[in-house]
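Proteins fold reproducibly. Next comes a concrete instance:

***
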Amino acid sequence: MWWWNGTPPMWGLWWIFPLVGLTFVIVVSFAASRFFGGGIGFCGGRRHDDIEDLRRDVRDLKEEVAKLKKQQ
């Protein structure tokens, strides 16, 4: 049993586990920021299309209001 005498079998590779963990945390943080940030990323820029749709709706409503004001 190595824990009673001698060194563990992976004594020279201890730095790999923190490196893998840090890499995983960075990748997950990046993915979450892109997903919830609304930019072009995993969501595909969906937020931009919603804003354009709302702007078009507002423009259409303003035109309808202008038509109704002319009728009165």
